[in-house]
């Protein structure tokens, strides 16, 4: 029996075989018509987005081709296609109800025989922003650009939180370069039980990564318009229960993934990783602004590769600029610097060898820096505890507080 994830991969590949008419032979994934793909118990749910002005014939041709290609996949028991306008999609993503005039009943996605009758004003599929059951805090690790050590910080922060007594999960949604399997030295495919995906385990962490679902030489078909669906599935269909923290390794920049995360679950905080170089500082500021716009509290900035300490002489050199510049910028942005991680060869070697420095060199100064960072992150009060938006309506979060008390 094929599991839903492998079927999903085949569905996406099949959609890449559906031509978008009048678009120079491009397929519907490349022309961004595919918004979401979900496969549950063999039922493939596909959401397409097409502007209103699109010719009906073209729409029907596309929908028919989608049904034909997806139905032919071994393991697919049913195909549902829903076609929406960008406006309807935006409304759905904002959790707004469909406008009344068309008086559509709560439209189910079109089933095969009803090709072309897909609802343009579909219902939201799930209540947006419902917390993940059994997870204390969700913390996003983000960066303005790639290569600043975001994934390295995410992994070692997760391990350091564990080291100080928390139960931690790590979710890698860096669509463009999922690196957790390499950093943690794990491979294989997650098991599925009772329709829930079971995270893998590495060094005591529960881990889920896009990397488990892609062969190294598989083209990254999970990008662009379908990012949202994958992230939702990773947050909703993976069994994360019993965690104090879920650390989410985001793709760099400000894009669909950040939006999808913030719209799917309440994010308790974001940690922005930067190096002291000016360019990534500017990008960090942009990331900060984006999280503010999404109403995600930015907990602070981590300065990675802050300095190089010569092991023998303890002399310090600034390789990527002076970390004091980050501190100055952080002050201007009214956000704290949560930690400074030195540039250290053991960090890179540990990453390359699948043995992160916090477990590989538990007594090193770099590990100490990560533990300090984790302690700061853990000390920050839950953002909702100050009653923001309600009369001091503090909502203790199951996983976190029950564990701290035990
Ligand atoms: P990103 O996720 O931002 O793209 P990575 O975490 O993949 O960045 O790190 C990029 C490279 O920098 C990797 O080779 C990693 O091992 C190395 N690196 C990250 N942080 C440090 C550090 N503090 N000291 C030395 N090398 C580091």
Describe the structure.
Homodimer. Residues 101-128 have a biased composition (Low complexity). Binds and transfers iron-sulfur (Fe-S) clusters to target apoproteins. Can hydrolyze ATP. GO terms for molecular function: 4 iron, 4 sulfur cluster binding; ATP binding; ATP hydrolysis activity; ATP-dependent FeS chaperone activity; metal ion binding. It is a single chain. The chain is 33% helix and 20% strand. With 406 residues, it is an alpha/beta fold. It folds into two domains: 4-113, Fe-S cluster assembly (FSCA) (GMP Synthetase, Chain A, domain 3, 2-Layer Sandwich); 135-380, Rossmann fold. The two termini are 41 Å apart. The model is unreliable at 100-128 and 382-406 (pLDDT under 50). Adenosine-5'-diphosphate binds next to helix 4, strand 12, strand 14 and helix 10.
Summary keywords:
406 residues, alpha/beta, GMP Synthetase, Chain A, domain 3, Rossmann fold, 2 domains, nine-stranded mixed β-sheet, three-stranded mixed β-sheet, 13 helices, 14 strands, globular, binds adenosine-5'-diphosphate
The level 1 CATH classification of the largest domain is Alpha Beta
CATH architecture of the largest domain: 3-Layer(aba) Sandwich
- Overall geometry: globular
End-to-end C-alpha gap: 41 Å
String of helices and strands = HEEHEHEHEHEEEEHEHEHEEHEHHHH
CATH superfamily of the largest domain: P-loop containing nucleotide triphosphate hydrolases
Q: What is the helix fraction of residues, given as a range?
A: 25-40%
Estimated radius of gyration = 22 Å
Strands, count: 14
Main sheet properties: 9 strands, mixed
- The stretches of 5 or more residues where confidence is low (pLDDT under 50) are 100-128, 382-406
Q: Examine the coordinates and then state which fold CATH places here, giving the name of the CATH topology of the largest domain.
A: Rossmann fold
Mean pLDDT reading: 80
Number of helices: 13
Proportion in β-strands: 15-25%
Question: How many separate domains make up the residues?
Answer: 2
């Amino acid at each position: 029996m094929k599991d839903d994830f492998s079927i999903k991969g085949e569905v996406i590949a099949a959609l890449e075989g559906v031509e978008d008419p009048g678009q120079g032979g491009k397929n519907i994934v490349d022309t961004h018509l595919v918004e979401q793909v979900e496969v549950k118990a063999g039922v493939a749910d596909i959401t397409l987005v097409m502007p209103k002005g699109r010719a009906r014939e073209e729409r029907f041709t596309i929908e028919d081709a989608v049904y034909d290609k997806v139905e032919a996949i071994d393991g697919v028991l049913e195909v549902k296609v829903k076609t929406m306008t960008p406006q309807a999609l935006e409304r759905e993503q904002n959790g707004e109800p469909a406008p009344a005039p068309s008086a559509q009943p709560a439209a189910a996605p079109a089933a095969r025989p009803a090709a072309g009758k897909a609802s343009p004003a579909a219902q939201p599929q799930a209540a947006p922003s419902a917390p993940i059951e059994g997870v204390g805090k969700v913390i996003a690790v983000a960066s303005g650009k790639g290569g600043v050590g975001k994934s390295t910080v995410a992994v070692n922060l997760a391990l350091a939180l564990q080291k100080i007594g928390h139960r931690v999960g790590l979710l890698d949604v860096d669509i463009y370069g999922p690196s957790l399997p390499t950093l943690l030295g794990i491979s294989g495919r997650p098991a599925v039980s009772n329709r829930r995906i079971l995270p893998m385990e590495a060094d005591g962490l529960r881990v889920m990564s896009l990397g488990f679902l892609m062969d190294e030489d598989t083209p990254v078909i999970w990008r662009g318009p379908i990012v949202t669906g994958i992230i939702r599935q990773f947050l909703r269909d993976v069994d994360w229960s019993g965690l104090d923290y879920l650390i989410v390794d985001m793709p760099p920049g400000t894009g669909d993934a950040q939006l999808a995360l913030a719209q799917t679950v309440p994010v308790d905080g974001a940690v922005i990783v930067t190096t002291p170089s000016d360019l990534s500082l500017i990008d960090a500021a942009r990331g900060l602004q984006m999280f503010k716009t999404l109403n995600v509290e930015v907990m602070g900035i981590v300065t990675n590769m802050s300095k190089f300490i010569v092991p023998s002489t303890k002399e310090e050199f600034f390789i990527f600029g002076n970390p004091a510049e980050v501190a100055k910028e952080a002050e201007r942005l009214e956000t704290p610097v949560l930690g400074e991680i030195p540039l250290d060869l053991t960090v890179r070697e540990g990453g390359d060898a699948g043995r992160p420095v916090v477990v590989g060199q538990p007594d090193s100064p770099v590990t100490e820096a990560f533990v300090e960072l984790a302690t700061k992150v853990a000390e920050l009060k839950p953002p909702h505890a100050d009653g923001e938006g309600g009369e001091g309506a503090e909502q203790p979060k199951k996983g976190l507080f029950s564990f701290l008390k035990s």
